[in-house]
Amino acid sequence: MVEVSIHRHLLLEPHIFGGDKTRVRLHPSVKPMNTLFNVSSGTITVEKDVTFGHNVCVLTGWHDPAQRGLARSQEWAKEGHDIVIREGVWLASNVTVIGPAEIGAHAVIAAGAVVTGNLPARVMAGGVPAKVIKEI
Asked: Which domains occur in the chain, in start order?
């Protein structure tokens, strides 16, 4: 069952898909807003004071594009695509993070960005794939 909490009159539901929800480690200060956490291919760690916009996807799931037919969708890596989101990160609406990835402390990820690797601390990043726009 998905855990539901009430915060400032908003219904906040962290959704977990494709894996064991114990593989998601959220600091108690984190309030995901209809966020999709896919842990089928690794773990997700979210440190304190991380802000989530609407419709953020955090995906460890990985399918081998070299596979053909049903094997492509029915087989996936079980480990190795971990995601770590460090303290104070802001993930704007519609951000997608694809593991393996680590986002450094206090980084800001622009709306609609797709993070496909590591980003340093205290930067603004955006685009597809996300690139550093400036230091903050």
From this structure: 5-135 (2.160.10.10)
